[in-house]
Design a protein that fits this description.
The chain is an alpha+beta fold. The chain is 41% helix and 22% strand. It is built from 18 helices and 24 strands. The strands form five sheets. Strands 11, 12, 13, 14, 15, 16, 17, 18 and 19 form a nine-stranded mixed beta sheet that branches. A five-stranded mixed beta sheet has the order 20-22-21-23-24, with helices on one face.
Amino acid sequence: MLRFLTFLVTLLLAVPAAAQLGSGPPHMAVEVVAERPATPGGEVDLALVMTPEEGWHGYWENPGDAGKPMTVEWQLPPFAAAGPLRYPVPAKLVIAGLMNHVFKGPYAVLTRLKVPADARGSLPIRATLDYLVCTDQICVPERGTVALDLPVGTGAADPRFDAWRAKLPQPLGSPATFAIAADRLKVAIPLPENVAVGEPHLFAITGDAVRYAEAQRFRRTADRLIAELPLAAAPSGEFEGVIDLGTGRALRFAAAPGPVPDGGRTIGGGEAWRLLLFAFAGAVLGGLILNLMPCVFPILALKALALARAGGAEREARADALGYTAGAIVGTGALGAILLLIRAGGSAAGWAFQLQDPRTVLFLFLLAVAITLNLLGLFKLPVLGGEGNPRSGFATGALAAFVATPCAGPFMGAALGTALLLPAAGALLVFAGLGLGLALPFLLLAFVPALRKRLPRPGPWMARLQRILAIPMALSALAALWLLWRQGGTSAVLLGLLSAAILVAALFLAGRRQNSGHPAFSPVVAALLLFVAVPLLGIGRGEMAVGQRGNHGEAWSEARVAAARAQNRPVFVYFTADWCLSCKVNEASTIDRNEVRDALKAAGAVVLVADWTNADPAITRFLDSRGRGAIPLYLWYAPGAAEPEELPQVLTPAMLIERASAVKR
């Protein structure tokens, strides 16, 4: 009866406009595009790009209570074949108590084309699409034809495909189960406890199994997300669906009849707030730890010196601290906002994304050189030396936020990964929490008189300490220069050294003017500083092979992991980058140790390296799938285990040796 009424409603909506089929302008523009030229015997992704007219919408593969799924009739060359259609995650639309699964804006449906082994020249790709396009009041069945002459050969990839693939639900490798209890269909979906969940919704692919418009209930155990759905009819075989986690991430699963655990905590309502508070607390703790990094610690120490030089004056100390805190929060918030905008535009990016561009690395190198020269007394930089000046404190806080981005210590990885799955407002709050943690030590010094009184009295030791602090900052400059070489090659290093030489000359002249009582800037100094930026125009990405790291491991790919696991071999994967200090410390102290390598070799372990020094959409998407927005990340795949074990961000040799020794050969 329900299906008959649903069909009747759809028919009544479609009949008044059915005469428009084949006449008048279409309400849905359609085209087919290929990601890249075809390779004989290979595969290439195609996209059916659907653009509904303003106020109209198209339908998902299961349209819900009303609507109609799209059908595609392909006309392809001999031995070519198109795979199943892969839809993005739909939106919910309830009209007159009926739930529809729709797309209200432009969307792309992907498919994979198998290319004939003897393909030459170009492949004529043709297809006829039948679909329903609707407003909230009227529906129109339309037919569209698409055509593409796909060249065979090599060429650049269409960058839109990364954005379209990011909107697809990710396939869930582990099996799900379902059971029927009274009028409810219970589905147990494997989901590690560290994967964030907001306000979930399950879109059923299997038709006629659930009542779409009725409320869904969710609960969570340690390793399962349990959906309780209003039952319409028991599935005859597998139950397939897409679970939208409510965090910008969705999973496609297939469930077989099987046990569904009881208990667990209810999801919904306050769950999003708990998730946000967890991520915010992790960001604050992560920002606090960043103060120990060699590029940030000198800045914090200089602010402490400024407090000591002020003689403990409470008003000036608090004004400076508030300015510093505001600068750190605005700095990390701005970086987070830029990251969210880049991801919203369809690009795969994560924390420290700016360091994957050699021009930003060159700027960081020049900044470290300037701070080193300031610490050595070549010139005075008011940003680092002022006390009781909120504007100076703000600039210093923003500077600290920028130079801290190469690192992601404990607590930060999970917090930033969660932030990238939250709505924009919640994500920005988490990024602000990182800035708050970064500023917290200086904030405590300024507002807790007992701590401020423990600072030593001003004296000659301050000048000596300032010179000592120049050492870690100079090392940071050398690290940035090394990273510049890794990303841009020898030519980038030469351009960087040229910029640094011009910068040193400008700062030397500025320092001489300051020592003689004149303003630092003069026409000559300003002209030299302008010339510092000229090498930026020539910086490009070199041909450095950062993806392969000699004897330290093979280049990572999900296919390589699957192949090793199919051989029942243990797999150790580490995600790293040349700009990640925590990664380098773990590699030197643990991964590259001879005893660790010997243990892994004896266990027959496959060691895979995912190098994120340069932007890599595949790595970014995998990190997103693990709920991570930053590195390092270490995964141990034990033989026969369903899911990998995520190791701590601070590794020790014993951790890897113990796991390798437990493998039975």
